Structures are given as C-alpha cells and as structure tokens.
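Hello,

Following up on my earlier ticket. Below are the three sequence lines again, exactly as submitted.
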Amino acid sequence: MGRQVAIVSAGFSEHASKRSDVSMPELVNEAIMDCLKKVPSVDPNKDIDAFVNGNMPAFEGANIPELWMTDWMGARNKPLMRVTTGGTTGGTVAIAGYYNVTAGLPGIDTVLAIAFEQQSQGDTATGLASVAYGEISILNTLGISYETLGRLLSAGAAIGVAAYQATNYMSKARITEEDLARVVVHNRRMAAKNWWAHLRMPNLTIEEVLDTPYVQYPLRYGMLCPASDGACAMLFTTEEKAKDMCDIPVYVNGVASVANETAVLGYDGSGSAQVDPSAQIGAMRSSELAYAQAGISFPRKEIDYAEVYSPFPNQELMWLEKLGLFEETTAPQMYENGTIALDGDLPVNCSGGVNSTNAIGASAMERPAVAAQQIMGTADNQVKKTVHTSIGHGWGGSLNLCTLMVMSDEPQRKWR
Amino acid sequence: MEKVGIVGFNQVKLYSDANYGRYEMIFEAVRGAIDKAGLKKKDITTVISCTNDYYDGRTISNCWTVEVGGGYLADESKCEMDGAHAVLYGLMRILSGNHKLAVIWGGSMPSCYPYHSARLYETDPTWERPLGYVNDITAGGFQMRAYMEKFGVSKEEIARIAVKNRKNAAKNPLALAESQNANITVQDVLNSDVYSDPVTELMVAQPCDGVAALLLAPERQALKITDNPVWITGVGYSQDTYYLGERDLSVSKSMEIASKTALNAAGIKNPKNEIDVAELFEAYAHEELIFTEALGLAEKGKAASFNSEINGELAINPSGGAIGGNPPCATGLIRIIEAAKQLRGEANGYQVKGAKKAIASGQIGMCAQNNILFVLEGNV
Amino acid sequence: MSKRTERKDMGYIKKDYVKTRTMPGSWYLSSYKYKFNISHMQPFLKKLKEKKLIANQCSGCNRVFYPPRLVCGQCLVKPDRWVDIRDTARVATYAIAYLKDAETGEVVERPMVLVHHDGTDTCNIAELHPDVDVKDTYIGMPIKAHWRETTEGGMMDIEYYDPIEDDAKDIK
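Thanks for your patience. The regenerated structure is below:
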C-alpha cells in the first residue's frame, strides 16, 4: 500500500503581465515542453500514463478548461483528473499528482501535473472578490445596506482579507516598514536571475521600495505581488522508473493540506472563529502532519531550503514562523543577518517567490517545483550549499487553506 | 489493486427547487453518512469535495464549506469534475496509506443559476462560443442523430429507455418528483417539447438540487466499521478529444478504454455474465445505449434489443439513472451509491435479486468526453 | 492593483509579446440567486429589536458563536444552546478603508475592525465611531456597541462601536 513517489522534472513557461501571444492551451503546452525537454528519455505518447490539471477558473471565463486543452497536453484517450482549490490550486495539483502515483492504480506509473493561469484574460479584482459574493448577499438580507457593506469590505483594497492578518502579525512582531522592504528586496533580486520570473529587479534597494505610494497601510505599491500569466508542469513517477529518467530523483516524503474555518467572514452570515488570523492553526497542523510523514523532527535543522507562498512581505515572515522554521517573532532578524540569503544557512525563496511572480493558479505549484529543482541541482538560481531536504508551501481561500510538500533526495520508508 | 471499502453513504432527496440552503444540504448529507456508519467527526482524516465555481456563483467554492463538509482541521481538497471523479481521488488517498477514512461529498443547486448559461462557459472561447452552434444543448442532438443514422436505430427504441428509467425512478423514493412517472408511454416521450432535434424534453436528465456523500476506508478498517462493506475492485477513466467534429459520436471511445481498464483490474472477462447490475450516468436516453455497447454488453447498434429491465439480462439503472434526477457534480456519486445499495440489499422496491457485482459510471464534458467506471463487489 | 496609484519604474526587465486574436466575454454573477437558511438567525434578529444580544453555543466544544452559526465545524453538530452576551467587545484586528467623499472628492482613511465580543469565540466585521482616527485604533482596544434609536430587527441595529476607557493604557 502506498509506493514511493519521485519528481523527475519541472518545467515553466515565461511569466509576464500579459502573455498576449498565446491562448490558454498554448501557454500550458509551453510549460509541458519545457518540462519534457529536461527528460529526453520520456516519450510523451507512450510513457505518460495520466494527467492532473488545475487552475482558478474564475479568471479566464472558461469552465473546466482542461476539456478544451486535451490535445495540447497530449491527453487524448488517457486518464485525466482536475483539481482546483483557489489560491492553493498549484499545491493541490502537485499533491494530487503524488497521490495518483502512490495509489498504484493499474497502469498509472508516470503522471504529468499541470497548473496554469492566464489572469490577463479576466479582471483579477472581480475574480477574487467573487469569493465572498454569496456571503455578502446574505449580510445584505440580514439588514446591512449595500452602501455600508461596500465601506466595510473595501478595507483591504488589493490585498483583501490578508490586510487583517497583516495588522495582527505586525503588532505581534513589532516590525517596521524597513523590515518589509528588506524582504521585497531579497525576493526581487533573487528573481532577477530567474528566466521565467515576472518582476526581475537586480538592483533594487530598500529606499526605492519605500519611495512608492501606499496601497493599503503599511503595504506600499512596491511591495505587492504582480498579476502574471504563466504555467508550470511537474512529472511524477515511481522510484524504479525515476532512476532511468534523471540523475537525482527527488522523493516526495510528506504532503498535507489541512483546512481551517474562514477568517474575516463566516459562512451564512455568521462570524469567524479565527479571532487572530495570523495564528493559522491549519498551517501548523499541516506542517506537523507533513513533517511526521517525512520523518523530520527538527525542521530548522533538517530542512535545507524553503519556498513559502507570500504575495505580501509580512506573510513571508509569518509563514516561516508558522511552518516551524524560526521561533515566533524572530523571522525579521533572519533577513538582517543573512540566514536566508543565497549563501546562507537556510535559503528562502531564491526563485523570487510569489512576490515577484504570481499566476494564481500556478504559483502554489511553482514553490514545490523550484524546491525540487534545488535538490536536483538544476534550479535557475541554485543556492551555494547542497540541498538534501526542501519544502514547498501554498495558502489560499479566506486565509483558511494551506498546502505543504516535503521533498528529499532520500526516500522515506512509509511510517505506517 | 488492494480492496477499498465503501462503508457508508447518504443522499438527500432531490428537488428541482429546494427550499433550504446549500450549507444545510451538505451538512445533512455528510452528517447522515457519518451517523449511518456509526462514526464520529474525529474519525475523519480527509475530505474530498466536488463542486464547481460556475455552478455555485463564487470563486473557491470549497473554502466556505470546510466546516459543514466535516473538513475542519482535516486534509481537504476539491475535485472539479463529476462526483465519481471525487470518489476516484478519495480512493487514491486511501490506497496511499496516508488516511484511514475518506469523506467524499458533492453537489450543487441549479435552481440558483441559469444552468445552460453556466454550461456555455465549457465551450471553446475562440471558435465555438462566438458561433454558438455547439453547446451542451445542441451536443445532445448531434450525438443522437449520429447514433441513429449509423446503426439505423429508431426514435421509439431510444424513447423506450427514457420510459424505463422514468418508471424505475417512480420506485425510488429519493428521485426527483418531476421525473417519477409510473404510467408514462413511448408516445408521451416522443410528443414532449423538442429539446434539440431529435432529442425531446423527456429524454434529457433534468438538472436539480441535491448533495450526496460517501465514506471510504481501507480493507481492514472497513471490516471493523461495518458488517457489509462494498468493495471497489476496479476503476478506469479516460478523456476523449474535445472538438465534436474529431470524434465518432455514435460510439464512446472514452467509455471503451475506461471499461477495459476497470474490468481488467477487477478480473472480469465476460461482463454480461458476471455483472448483475449497472448504474450508468446517461445525460440523454441515447447515451445509455451507446454506453451499453461500449461496455461490451451488446453488439454495436444492437443495444436497443438488450433487456435492461430490473429482471432482465442485466439491470441497467434500476434506480432511474440520471434521468431520475441529475444534480450537477453529484450524479456520478449517486450512481455509485445506488450500485452500493443494490449490493447491500438495501434498495427497497427496486432491488435486483442476488446482486453480487455491479458497475457504476460518471461523466463530464459534452457528449461524455471524460468517462469513469467503477467495478463494485458485495461482501460475501 | 489600485488604479489610483502610479506605476513607478523600478528598473525591471520587461518584454513585449506579439498580440494575437482576442474574443470578448463576461461572467454575469448578477444572475445568480443565493439561497440560505435563516432558521438559526431568527431568535437572534428578534432580540436585536429589543437591543439585546444573544449568541448560540455548541455543547460539544463549548464555543460561543456570535453572530449565530448553523453548524459547529469542530464537532459537526448544530449548536443547541442560546446564551446572552454583553455589548462590550475588543478590537481583534483591523484594516484601513480609503473612502472617497462623493462631493468633495477627498480621500478619507477609516478603520474597519473585526469585533470580538466578550464571552464569545468569534469576531465579525463592523465600523467604529466616525470620529475615531486610524492612529488611535489598536489591537485589544475596548469598545462598546452603539445602538440605533429605532431598531428594525436586523444587523444594522448596531450602527457602530464607541471606544471606552482603557484602564491598562498607562502601564508600561
């Protein structure tokens, strides 16, 4: 029961704010070609047994688009499954790819997982705001007028519910704007060496980031993530077949995607029990489960590289603490003393992170994909130390969904 | 493939315009399934849901349903296809060994939105949508015409399937009230309004409100939870090409491939003799005939002469099938539940005698582009 | 991205792509109806008319939900008790809304708060008194509900929250 799963390749398409030269299927095809050219021994017609596909369908105006792009993926007459969960879509697609292989269904050994998003085709703000349409109309029926609702819900602006989380974290950790700008500078400079990232700024300084106007206090325009178009593909297979496909197969040792109840608004007009949105018990439980599966007892010591999903800089600091990598409220100091730098002890987000590239459906898959590439040694911005264990993380929904994938170059024999 | 057991299930009564809300419906389905199996909330380790953003009118349709679906602090994910595909994902999670109890639920409420307008977004935005010729309504017409012309099947033979299913639905207390009709005749079906020539209204599976839930557990735990688990012994799924013009609509290639994989995994060589009951998701009456042929139960073009009544050669859709009620994102799941009921002997009023092995199918896409087939076995 | 803010070129490497054919489309969310249950809300709305607050409680985990909730997620049962709560509360967290005055056109910053009533385990979204400045809001600030004069039995009967005296403010 439960076979060992290995990642043999990860591919990306070019990310930009408007990929006006390709339609959705062509964008997906670009990522798949990039993924397959790194494993020349895999014949796409014969060797790929199943597919998993996912994106956030609200942005492009296309429902269940994987039906449309069957031929561009090479999935004609082959098994295909679709998984979508909003902001964590990429992470859950990667996790579904893992489950496809480990389940051992007859005939399914090699699985191609694809996550993509073409946000320029839709209105990002409306797409994201429609998460709460149902709940907003209920509040209206219970007596709150649309005018008041508009005032109440305009707090958060481009950031949405994450603004409430930011206030709590920042008052807990007592950080300043400079700490946030330092995180942004780290991310954007790392992205400059990454060919597929969106915002590549090799010479960014803290002053330049602080010189932009406020969008939502205390986040300035220069600190926010962009809205990109892009796709990402990963190839999963069994332990035996992986040895023939690539030099260093990356074994998926732990996966978890524990959900919590929503923050800010509750369902059916009720309140939210997440009184402190930065407490994130769902994420802490996910990390406990995934680390236990992977046999990791001391995450700070045993993990060599981390990719966390942080469209806003304050979230990066919060997630590093919640995932057990740093002690509570000490993450900002790690950015000052260089622990998280390219040549540091625990490098973080050396691909630029979500702060530099955010194609919502694909970003949560790009985190485990880059973390896997760092173990393989083929990342576009490879860190100095040898990476043996890494993690890729994603969050989404109304601050309630979370995904985590723990990978290593040694297989972990099953714990149950 | 190791055996995985269905240990509990629950389905709400289908209505065309339910007077209660989505969360209440999901809670009723999931809580009912857990109670019938004698389990509790803390036993749930993973939840897979099946909903669709366009059918619910909001993005990330699963983030608000975490609590009512039993997913609070449980490993939760969502599969955005038919309910049967969510069961597939739940099956994979159990086979991995990471989880011991999986809750799968799915459903939607078409009374809240214009169903066919939401289906329009499945069409290709570059060619098909602007022209408007191909959509889920006309696709049914194309498929029926192709099948009738290729094999010389008459409209009456296809209408007989609609009559059989509607009469069967009348014996099923949970089916949609509008489709339960014990006195319907072939003439009634042919005289009803034209849906998309030659398909008529009564040949179509009508979308309605409904939610269903199912519980899966590995073999050892399933035997402890209930005396009567239903084993999933085989599964197969496959996706056909997208454009209708590139497929032969008179056959279902994806169902042929899916059935070959599923029947091989279950070790079934002759489905006609070894299978006792089949629950197929047929969006139109003629699709049931096409699937009967794709499964190898009848020669190509001869499915109309196959006896699929409850006491016939092989009972197909004794619960009424999708024509008895089609809640989008739950229909495939309900087919699996009905097949499991038959194997446990709990289908009061429409039980097939001595049912030991069953098959259940689900589909998604226009003209059944992606088909999935499960092979189920009772616990003897 | 807020369209009011100007894009400042921070020296990022940009590439232009050749444009291909485009097709228009839209997703008309306005044609959706959202059905929901109100049975769990009726006692709560009736008491609001009398300017009293009640909440429901789940016996399984003892959590108190204000506004009332349909199903307790932790226990997967319906809450079965009603308890009454005071109208004092604390600010759980807050964010800033930028509101443009319709006549003058000037942009005003107002704090929007998540209010955590004393004795409950949930928070809901609300506004503060119009004169309270963003700089004076802080997490844990004690506040009290300000009722409307004529109540109608709806959520708007609490118009906003007034700040009250914080006895611990002068302690370092």
